[in-house]
Every structure is written in C-alpha cells, then in structure tokens.
Amino acid sequence: MAISALRAGKYLCEISDWSLTNLSLQKLLYIAHMVHLGTRGEPFIKDSFEAWDYGPVLPSLYHQVKIFGSAPIRNIFRSVKDLREDGKAAEWLDEAYEGLGDLRPSQLVAITHREKGAWAKNYVPGVHDIVIPNEDIKAEYRTYQRGS
C-alpha cells in the first residue's frame, strides 16, 4: 500500500485547504509513516526519510515545495496523481491530519526530534543523504508507545 511522498503531500495540502508549510507537511508525513510502520508493520511512504538539520525530510517532496519557503504551500502538484482513488491511504492521512493538523510546527518538531528517536539516532549536523532506516522509525514508535 505504500504511496509516493508527492501523492501524500498533495493530499495533505488539499485537506488542509493549502495551509501547510513545508516544515509542517514533512513532520505530519513522518508521524503518519511512523504510526503506520508501528501499527501495520509496513511503510506508508515509499520514499525514504532523511535526517536533515530541521528533522526528518522526504527530499523529493522538499525539492518540489521549497520555493514556498516558510509560507503555506500552493498547488504545484497538478501532474501528481490524485490520492482519493486510493481510499485506504486517503483515510490514513485523514486520520493523521485530524489528530495532528492543529499542532503548531514547534509541537510537531518536538515529536520528531525526540532525544532517542530515529531522527536523533541518524542525524549528523549539516549532512544530507543520511537515510533514516524504517527499522529505526518502527523502533521509535515502539519506544514512544511504551512511554520511554
């Protein structure tokens, strides 16, 4: 069921009424991916997250929307296939947005930057191209569920 970062990003931007910034979008997708890995045992996003300075990032999505800086993303996904055709993936993102969409960017960052989390485990300051392994993301979910 794994979907592309661009399809997931487009859908979240649509259901947010185009109010998400790149930072918030990246964090929401990371958390949705982490919960999916932890509860279903399989990736939600096909693309790999990388450990960048501002947290987990999907590079393909980042480069698509970086022109907006810290402003809300506008629809530049016109050539990206609509996710509504994939009901299960759309439902998963609906739930993620319902549960997390009202959080401020700083609150999302606090979740994705936990001291023993997958990002922190793989992050090297100033270095891109460091993939955060799905096994580390799954382990982060388990640790978070235990309250550690």
What characteristics describe this protein?
148 residues, 7 helices, mainly alpha
**How does the helix and strand content classify structurally?**
mainly alpha
Quaternary structure of the protein: single chain
Helix content class: 40-55%
- The average pLDDT value, as a whole number, equals 93
Total of DSSP H or I helical runs spanning 4+ residues: 7
Strand order of the largest sheet: 1-2
| End-to-end CA span | 30 Å
What is the overall shape? Answer: globular
Beta strand %: under 5%
Describe the structure in your own words:
With 148 residues, this protein is mainly α. It has one domain (5-146). It is built from seven helices and two strands, in the order ααββααααα. It has a two-stranded antiparallel sheet. The protein starts with a helix and ends with a helix. The model has no long low-confidence stretch (mean pLDDT 93).
